[in-house]
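Quick illustration, no need to memorize.
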Amino acid sequence: MSNRQDISKDITTASGAPIDIIPLAEMCRRLGKDRSTIWRWWHCGKFPRPWTINGRTIGWFRHQYEAWLKAQQ
């Protein structure tokens, strides 16, 4: 059973503007870490929760990532 939530129907704002999603591969590049490190951080509560998009793609809301990044400084 997965703790990720499928947001395939919820990837726009109420006004219809798209919400930026950072996929796992891009997150690995941004952080300079591999998948296992990012999953470990998430499971330990050190990183935001990932979301499943269209039942396949895993990613993070850009605003959540930016808030996490700011909190690290």
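The first strand starts at residue 5 and ends at 6.
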